[in-house]
Amino acid sequence: MKRLRRLRNNETIRSLIRETHLTTNDLIYPLFIKDGYKIKEEIPSMPEIFRLSIDMAIDEIKTLRNLGINAFLLFGVPNKKDLKCINIVNKALEEIKSEIKDAYLITDVCLCSYTEDGHCGITKDGIILNDESVELLSEISLSYAQSGADMIAPSDMMDGRVKKIRKTLDKNNFSDIPIMSYSAKFASSFYGPFRDAANSAPKFGDRKTYQLDIANKNEALREIALDIEEGADIVMIKPALSFLDIVEATKRTFNIPVAVYNVSGEYSMVKAAAQKGWIDEKEVVLETLTSMKRAGADIIITYHAKDVAKWLSYQ
């Protein structure tokens, strides 16, 4: 009789044959950057996540690096809706790099936090203008590279933006800056807490004309293939948990690093259930993040990163 349970008898043997390993090297921590000084505003719908002024973000990065988290995804949260306020991220890049030269800084590239209507591109008469948005997104990407960004991460889902950003970076001697594209970003219901954090909810309509239909797997793979063709170095699937089939198919189909975004709604559901005492937060988080790696993710962007780093250090 074959007894597979022989290899489950105790933690030592289980550890020896474990197939998937989660480490701090897999994790990217998102940061919400706000204008001002000594600002640390907790986001009500995202317990233990804060909007931070640049000085406080620097302190947070130092803490996280001591825990083994070395990569950070920056989002700007302007005090007023104005495309000119995008420079808050430029300021953050410059000040963080002046203080912590080897911090790996990734910049989300999108317009939703800065436009009056909260959409990810330029709008006219209720229509999101693709090509005009791509031009502006490429200019923003270049400005981030000039300010010290280590990686550019366009999240807008406009057609052709990876190609345009790649050409713009290459033309201006930033050919060594990689692009991590939000290649399969679905029109998900899991983004609500993020939109509170970044004040980025659309003021009219929705984002279904540019984000992917949640039911479409083959379309997602076509988007990913196109971004790779246009020059993406890493492709991202967002959200993570509801789309692990897309992660697995992407890893199996394309020879390229794959990232997932463990988004705000996924984070907040776990936090809320843990606060009620309904689940073991540590075990649930480690299980869900391990499932992302098992599906094929090389990189996990997650608000749980700080907690995970602490838990892993005590294992």
From TrEMBL:
Positions with a binding annotation for Mg(2+): E223
GO process annotations (BP): protoporphyrinogen IX biosynthetic process
Pathway participation: Porphyrin-containing compound metabolism; protoporphyrin-IX biosynthesis; coproporphyrinogen-III from 5-aminolevulinate: step 1/4
Gene Ontology terms for molecular function: porphobilinogen synthase activity; zinc ion binding
Enzyme active site: K185, K238
The keyword Metal-binding is assigned to this record: yes
Binding site for 5-aminolevulinate 1: R195, R207
Keyword line: Heme biosynthesis, Lyase, Magnesium, Metal-binding, Porphyrin biosynthesis, Zinc
Catalytic activity: 2 5-aminolevulinate = porphobilinogen + 2 H2O + H(+)
Coiled coil: none
Similarity comment text for this entry: Belongs to the ALAD family.
UniProt name for this protein: Delta-aminolevulinic acid dehydratase
Organism: Thermosipho melanesiensis (strain DSM 12029 / CIP 104789 / BI429)
